[in-house]
DNA sequence: AATCCGGGGGC
DNA sequence: GCCCCAGGATT
């Protein structure tokens, strides 16, 4: 091997290697790309919706939401004009609900400040709420051909392997390294296709760990990790913190066939979604916490003398990324609907109505349990 | 730099 | 159970 031949396990990207990566990847993308609705004719609005939905969410999960959402809000003006509750309702079940709030407010910015036209540059897009480095790069490259990278989780893994990057990718330093390497790879034409090809490769070929399918990889001959047999070991990640355990009390306050629901605060966990009133159990027993919480819901009024106090109807656990929550359910009947105390946004609704109002997956589990338990107890 | 924010798929 | 996913905002 001549001394000038670049070593395959080097993480330097010489001109010849980038040329081959660009050519092989684009050719593979032309032959193997999936038929996805947002790819048919990329418009800023539809590309934007798809990119926001695809944040931390897999393609198969997004598809039905994407169709429903565009049917309900066909244009950015329709989205901007819609009530926030409608937007959130169409997001229910998809998770990360701040995405829906930012989507709505960004639509209003586009309509009011830019007369309904999206900014046509990375920098302009980057200033909209909910649009970060990745999404701005994706829209700018796909819709406007601007030479910007779109570094998502797939690209982090693909490029870390191509370059044999030992830096942890879940740190600012590691991300910056990968981003710089990705910029060097970007072609000057078909940038949007190249960005999508990198992501598509990560999703379908250059998969995590031992799921990598190197035999069918279009850039296997340009991959430094494969040459040094480190594909499974890359990318490197810093370990994450252990999830917290929490107990929550959830109170089903019933009058006739309706239950008291309230809207959660707009920021934080399940922001803006409806719920049966909940409270975190700080210490001690859930039933004591439930009694205290019921008194609080009644805003200091004395419970009816003959009321029997809250009755436990069971518990369900819900696993989130950083938390494991056990809901302890308590059921209570009240004689008067005026008993809803100091709750800002509250509403009496049947369980079926509530399911249509926009509730989290966790709250759906609670309602399921309540319906099942109610049949047994009565 | 670390944490928070959901939910589902795959193994 | 674990890891991952077309990330962004906040501290």
Describe this structure in words.
By secondary structure, the chain is an alpha+beta fold. The protein has two domains: 15-227, Endonuclease III, domain 1, CATH 1.10.340; 244-377, Nucleoside Triphosphate Pyrophosphohydrolase, CATH 3.90.79. Helices cover 44% and strands 12% of the residues. The protein is built from 15 helices and seven strands. The protein has helices at residues 15-32, 44-53, 59-72, 76-81, 84-91, 98-113, 122-126, 133-144, 153-162, 172-185, 191-204, 224-227, 286-297, 351-355, 361-377; strands at 244-255, 258-263, 274-275, 278-280, 311-319, 323-333, 346-349. Strands 1, 2, 3, 4, 5, 6 and 7 form a seven-stranded mixed β-sheet that branches. The termini are far apart. Residues 1-10 have low confidence and may be disordered.
What's the short story on this structure?
The protein is an alpha+beta fold and 378 residues long.
List keywords for this structure.
single chain, 378 residues, Endonuclease III, domain 1, Nucleoside Triphosphate Pyrophosphohydrolase, 2 domains, 7 strands, elongated, disordered N terminus, DNA-binding
Detail the topology: elements first, then pairings.
Layout: H1 15-32, H2 44-53, H3 59-72, H4 76-81, H5 84-91, H6 98-113, H7 122-126, H8 133-144, H9 153-162, H10 172-185, H11 191-204, H12 224-227, E1 244-255, E2 258-263, E3 274-275, E4 278-280, H13 286-297, E5 311-319, E6 323-333, E7 346-349, H14 351-355, H15 361-377
Parallel strand pairs: 1-6
Antiparallel strand pairs: 1-2, 1-4, 2-3, 2-7, 5-6
The protein binds a DNA duplex (11 and 11 nucleotides) through residues 50-62, 93-99, 102, 129-135, 138, 150, 152-155, 171-173, 195-196, 199-200, 202-203, 207-209, 211, 240-241, 268-271, 318-323, 360-362.
């Amino acid at each position: 091997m001549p001394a000038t031949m670049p070593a395959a396990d080097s993480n330097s990207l010489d001109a010849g290697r980038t040329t081959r990566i660009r050519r092989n990847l684009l050719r593979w993308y032309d032959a193997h790309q999936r038929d996805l609705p947002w790819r048919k004719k990329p418009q800023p609005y539809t590309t934007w919706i798809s990119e926001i939905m695809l944040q931390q969410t897999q393609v198969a999960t997004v598809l039905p939401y994407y169709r429903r959402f565009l049917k309900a809000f066909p244009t950015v003006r329709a989205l901007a004009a819609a009530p926030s509750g409608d937007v959130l309702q169409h997001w229910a079940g998809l998770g990360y609900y701040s995405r829906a709030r930012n989507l709505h407010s960004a639509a209003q910015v586009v309509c009011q400040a830019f007369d309904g036209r999206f900014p046509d540059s990375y920098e302009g897009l980057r200033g909209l709420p909910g649009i970060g480095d990745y999404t701005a790069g994706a829209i700018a490259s796909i819709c406007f051909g601007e030479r910007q990278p779109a570094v998502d989780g797939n690209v982090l893994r693909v490029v870390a392997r191509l370059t044999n990057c030992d830096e942890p990718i879940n740190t600012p330093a590691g991300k910056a390294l990968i981003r710089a390497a990705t910029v060097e790879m970007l072609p000057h034409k078909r940038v949007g296709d190249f960005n999508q090809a990198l992501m598509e490769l990560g999703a379908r070929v250059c998969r995590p760990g031992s799921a990598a399918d190197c035999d069918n990889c279009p850039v296997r001959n340009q991959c430094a990790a494969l040459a040094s047999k480190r594909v499974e070991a890359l990318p490197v990640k810093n370990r994450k913190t252990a999830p917290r355990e929490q107990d929550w009390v959830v109170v089903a306050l019933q009058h006739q066939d309706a239950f008291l629901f309230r809207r959660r605060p707009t920021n934080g966990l399940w922001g803006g979604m409806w719920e049966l009133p909940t409270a975190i159990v700080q210490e001690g027993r859930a039933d004591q916490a439930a009694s205290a919480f019921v008194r609080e819901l009644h805003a200091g009024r004395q419970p009816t003398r003959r009321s029997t106090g809250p009755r436990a109807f069971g518990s369900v656990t819900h696993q989130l990324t950083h938390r494991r929550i056990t809901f302890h359910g308590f059921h209570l009947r009240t004689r008067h609907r005026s008993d809803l105390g100091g709750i800002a946004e509250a509403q009496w609704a049947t369980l079926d109505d509530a399911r249509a109002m926009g509730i989290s997956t966790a709250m759906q589990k609670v309602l399921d349990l309540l319906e099942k338990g109610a049949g047994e107890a009565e």
